[in-house]
Amino acid sequence: MQRWIALISHYAARTGPIGRLWGRFHALVLRRTRGLVGAKWFGAPVLVLVTVGRKSGKARHTPVLYLTDHGRIALLAANAGNDRIPAWWLNLRAAQTVEILIRGRRRQMRWREAGGEEYDRLFAAMVDMYPPAEHYRGFTARRLPVVVLEDDS
Known about the structure:
Elements: H1 2-12, H2 17-32, E1 40-41, E2 44-52, E3 59-69, E4 72-76, H3 87-93, E5 97-102, E6 105-113, H4 116-129, H5 133-139, E7 146-151
Antiparallel strand pairs: 1-2, 2-3, 2-5, 3-4, 4-7, 5-6, 6-7
């Protein structure tokens, strides 16, 4: 079952404009309902990641699965295992901080990429939380970055 969910997500992420419209709609619903609707995806929690488009300069609202880890937040830049890197990851790399929205609460965060043992531990925790993520590695040769967000204080 988990592989089927991973395959559906993988191919849905490749739909181009349709996938982007779905993401925008999902983020809009999360924002408007203050996280009361759409805050889970197959049991995994979803936040709205607000980045600034590196080319457009416009705010981009993206729903992303997240994991809490000792007061920090971890994100997996998987794009459902597609070879194409998620646009939010590229936008994030162009900024020092990012804004997130969880259950109607906005937070300004600093980010960094996890490496080494931390990467392995967080990836395993992400798979425990959302088992289809394990299959994403089999869909692509690229390394799936794990992003760690910490309070900007």
